[in-house]
Amino acid sequence: MTKDQLIDKAKTFGIDTEGLTVEQLKAAIKKVKAEKIAELTVAVTEAKTAFENLPEDASDEDKIAVQGNINLAEQALADFTGVPTETKEEENEAEFDFNGSTYGFKKTAPARFNFLGVNRSQEEWIQDKDAMELLISGNSSFVKLLKK
């Protein structure tokens, strides 16, 4: 990477680049990246802890909201690190019916994901009718309506 490219990258992280050498720029970028990854990792851990600490009688809406926070934190970490979440190759491989409509997982939905404290594949989630009802009624970003 050229010095100009490093300066541009450093500026995106809010680093003051005035008078820094190439090595100093690389070190500053590396430090900020490590801090951001640590921050995002803490956010994931806190979201998971919040889910684990939900009272047993927590409403489905509360569980869905906290699970949404976990998914957002995990996605932010994946986006920042550049490590894509595992996604399905083909859209709508698995379809399911609910209240007379057909639903499928979006192409961007991870092949495996956490929901209500459980990590399963899309195929495994489809077998759990109660969970699918919650995913649909909770407007999960992983599910889309295919046919009414």
Q: Average pLDDT, to the nearest integer?
A: 84
What's the Cα radius of gyration? 20 Å
DSSP summary, beta strand count: 5
> Uncertain spans, ≥5 residues at pLDDT below 50?
87-92
**Main sheet summary:** 3 strands, antiparallel
Arrangement of strands in the largest sheet: 1-2-5
For the terminal residues, how far apart are their CA atoms? 52 Å
Share of helical residues: 40-55%
Oligomer classification: single chain
What overall form do the CA principal axes indicate?
A: elongated
Walk me through what this model shows.
By secondary structure, this protein is α+β, with helices and mostly antiparallel strands. The chain contains 5 helices and 5 strands. The strands form 2 sheets. The protein has a 3-stranded antiparallel β-sheet with strand order 1-2-5, covered by helices on one side. Strands 3-4 form a two-stranded antiparallel ribbon. The radius of gyration is 20 Å and the shape is elongated.
